[in-house]
Amino acid sequence: MDKIKHLYWRAGFGLSAEEWTERRRWSIPKAVDHLFEAAKKVAPVPPNPAPPAGFEEGDKSQKEAFVEKLKEERRMVAQQGGDWLYRMADPAQSALLERVSLFWHGHFACQTKFSTLASAQVNTLRTHALGSFRELTLAMARDVSMIRFLNNQQNRKDSPNENFARELMELFTIGRGHYTEKDVKEAARAFTGWSSNLRGEFMFRPGQHDYGVKTFMGESGRFDGEDIIARILDKRATSAFITRKVFRYFVNEQVDEDLVAQLAKRYYESDYQMEALLRAIFESDWFYAPQHIGSKIKSPVDLMAGILRKLKINFENDLALVFVQRALGQVLFNPPNVAGWPVGKPWIDNSTLTLRLSLAGHLFNSAEVNLRTKGEPEDLEREKGIKKLQATVDMSSIFRLLEGVRNEQIPEVLADFLLVARPNGFLEALAPHLKSAVSREERIRISTMALMSLPEYQMC
Question: What is the pLDDT of residue 381?
Answer without folding.
Answer: 47
